[in-house]
Design brief:
By secondary structure, this protein is α/β, with parallel strands linked by helices. The protein folds into 2 domains: 74 residues, Ubiquitin-like (UB roll) (Roll), CATH 3.10.20.310; 142 residues, Cell division protein FtsQ/DivIB (Rossmann fold, 3-Layer(aba) Sandwich). It has a 10-stranded mixed beta sheet. It has a 3-stranded mixed beta sheet with strand order 1-3-2, with helices on one face. Strand 2 and strand 3 form a beta hairpin. It is elongated and about 75 Å long. It starts with a helix and ends with a strand.
């Protein structure tokens, strides 16, 4: 019995040595590959931007202009060790339209630049007539002269938080953001709601794509319940009465939908 236990211990010890040897070998291989990569010459540069999501704030030429200069007009032909890829990443990640940028090189000397753009969920025009976006992470995002995102527009009594970029702070903007995020995640409301107005009395008012009515939404409490009531009214009430008969649809009252006709 004792010999059997001793045999099992030897097997376990041999297995442990095997794992350690494998880890050491992997570290050596990775270190050698890294040294080999830095000794290589950059053969090509591939810039990949997530345009498939429908945002075009940044293009490949923008990326090139951000990371290249007179002393480094191109990456191709330079030794990889001469390229400060981490510094280039930091430059790209400081751009307000970029959510994340990753730069890496493969063992053949090909450089890859992957750029993920910020995703706006609503465009705001505040009470000073200053326009900007709020992205899906709740950050203020400037508008672009080269691209306009297809998101709902919000205006009305919206104060400015005094920042060009960064997290939103005013409660009214936070409510707009929460509402816009809810709409973005629902295909039906994403197609239907085109404008949000912040009224001093009624709070949030929604302007739909179809119909001449306004939707008095109030605050963002129980958003799911309010949209559920509105969806039911659309499918049953407006279907029988017609889209052009109502001036307002009020969702502020719990458990009911109050409408006013033209």
């Amino acid at each position: 019995m004792a010999k059997h236990k001793k045999k099992i211990s030897y097997i376990r010890l041999a297995g442990l040595f095997g794992v350690l040897a494998g880890l050491v070998f992997l570290i050596i291989v990775l270190s050698a590959a890294k040294d080999q990569t830095t000794d290589m010459t950059c053969h090509s540069v591939t810039i990949r931007i997530d345009h498939e999501k429908g945002n075009f704030f940044i293009d490949r030429e923008d990326v090139r202009q951000m990371i290249l200069n007179d002393s480094l007009p191109d990456l191709v032909g330079h030794a990889v060790r001469e390229l400060d890829l981490k510094s280039m990443e930091r430059i790209l990640n400081k751009n307000p339209f970029i959510q994340k940028a990753d730069i890496y090189v493969d063992i053949k000397g090909n450089v890859f630049i992957d750029v993920q753009q910020r995703e706006p969920v609503i465009r705001v025009i505040n009470n000073k007539d200053v326009s900007y976006y709020i992205d899906k992470n709740g950050n203020k995002l400037p508008t672009s002269p080269k691209f306009t995102a297809r998101v709902p527009v919000s205006n009305g009594h919206i104060p400015d938080n005094g920042k060009d970029f960064g997290p939103i702070e005013h409660q009214g903007l936070k409510d707009l953001y929460a509402l816009a995020e809810f709409i973005r995640k629902d295909d039906f409301w994403k197609a239907q709601i085109v404008q949000v107005y912040l009224d001093k009395v009624n709070g949030l008012e929604l302007i739909p794509r179809l119909g001449e009515h306004r939707i008095i939404f109030g605050n963002v409490d129980d958003m799911e319940g309010k949209f559920r009531k509105l969806r039911l009214f659309y499918e049953e009430g407006l279907k029988s009465m017609g889209w052009g008969n109502y001036r307002t649809i009020n969702l502020k009252y719990k458990g009911q939908v109050v409408c006013s006709k033209f």
